[in-house]
């Protein structure tokens, strides 16, 4: 057995063990699942790696990968690492300026892009990126007549690799053998919630150490099926999907496209996976909307057996054994309700489902436990290079992110900030020694999150340190904690809790256009646009009811007193969200200052200035009336 100390050596070990006897990757194309063995995987990486070398890729060179999740993304990543290069990803929905920043800042020499859209982003600013030597693309559609000398297709690079191998036999294997486990394998950029993204550098040794540490308590097997559909530049997807799949030899699946993930999940039936809190929220909304549109019998079944599921979840969380009656009711509920819901959501075969990123509301967590999904929470941040904490089977607390992984140490400093130390910790920020020095002290990372470690060793995160706030009354509150409670409402897409140095809490709501739209249609409530729908009195009442439900779970001193609905959806392209769909709170508070000030005045309506962008590129200023809604005290 090959000793695998670097990521490409793990691939080589799996190739030697399974070759054509086992499926490594499965990809859906034109409605058909196409399988690739470990031999196919290895040969694609080998050919592409040698092709890049023939084009001038040297050890230490940086290569950026931009595109939807696909086998080619993974081939490129491992090919670069096998050649001694450093891979990094850029979010596929990034605008040109964001991609330019990452490519320029990281001194990228090669860019591997998905399709015409991504290629055009690079070509648009190619004169400002003189270090980029080649732009490789893997989806040729729309690019047949591009004759820019910078561009070359993925298959053409592989052909160059075959030619290079013919004249340099054993070159690829030699490259892998010479790899140093302490060399930089990849750079992952932070989400940039509070400023420009920072490039965290990780070694092969650190990444594999964190992966193996995670697999010590969350066992994966070669028979497991996983799907990669969260952004690959995100360390969460790398640390809980890509690397564990490689190390365990499980099969990695790629959906046809982002829009078909739900359908592909159901078709495939993953055994293990990770979901973002936003997607979990969306799935709960889907179920609630579907039940509302269902016939009488299905609605009755849901109302009868969901309380049974919630009761069983409470037994599980309390580590109690249910009596015979509850077990019988749960079995009936499983066949009548829980199993069909699991199947519809794509989790019928799922043994473990992790979530991370933004906080998950306890109501959402409870919902998935109630229908029999083994949902666990983990804590991750870019600089950790993996999963530093996670729930264990039989030891789940909804409000926590679990105890630390093996070889990870946690502590809380006097200010309440989380400090952590682990084997996979970033070796520093690229070209940012000052940032590195301020973030890492004596091997301990200042995570920037406020939290505590409870009596059972579980990590509980409240919010970002800079977002923790105090009312004028002296009462402290964590905006993200309250926002997580809002997520159970199928009608609320995003919420922004306000109140720092104010007399009371207020909230800005971004409605879920799909579910609120369907709700309006069932009631014959006419509307034209998102703005029109968001300002309807009936919609205000709908949102008010759900905010009051959240208020009842909060101490009176930190209950929400007023709210307003955004007149537009929050968008990463407008810098209101990060590319991982987290709120950019500071920017939102600055952009919507007039609206926020109105929440702390006596007015019942404010006219907001905004810009309307048309598809033809025209921009027109417009005044938008927004209602301010007071919430009655209970």
List its traits.
Rossmann fold; 634 residues; eight-stranded mixed beta sheet; alpha/beta; five-stranded antiparallel beta sheet; GMP Synthetase, Chain A, domain 3
Shape label: globular
The largest sheet is: 8 strands, mixed
* Count of runs of 4 or more consecutive helical residues: 21
In total, the number of strands is: 29
Beta-strand residue fraction: 15-25%
Low-confidence stretches: none
Mean pLDDT: 92
Per CATH, the class of the domain at 7-179 reads: Alpha Beta
Report the helical percentage.
25-40%
CA gyration radius, whole angstroms: 25 Å
Biggest sheet, strands in spatial order?
A: 7-6-5-3-4-8-9-18
What is the fold's blueprint, element by element?
Blueprint (H helix, E strand, L loop, with lengths): L6 H12 L4 E7 L2 E6 H17 L7 E5 L4 H12 L3 E5 L5 H10 L2 E6 L2 H9 L9 E4 L13 E3 H14 L3 H8 L5 E6 L9 E5 H14 L7 E3 L7 H14 L2 E4 L6 H8 L3 E5 H17 L2 H22 L6 H22 L6 E5 L5 H9 L4 E5 L9 E2 L18 E4 L4 E5 L6 E2 L3 H7 E2 L2 E10 L5 E6 L4 E2 L5 E2 L1 H8 L5 E7 L6 E7 L1 H10 L7 H5 L2 H15 L8 E6 L19 H7 L1 H7 L5 E9 L5 E9 L1 E2 L4
Parallel strand pairs: 1-11, 3-4, 3-5, 4-8, 5-6, 6-7, 10-11, 12-13, 13-14, 25-26
Antiparallel strand pairs: 1-2, 8-9, 9-18, 14-15, 16-17, 17-20, 19-20, 20-21, 22-23, 24-25, 26-29, 27-28
Helix pairs in contact: 1-2, 1-3, 2-3, 2-6, 8-9, 12-13, 12-14
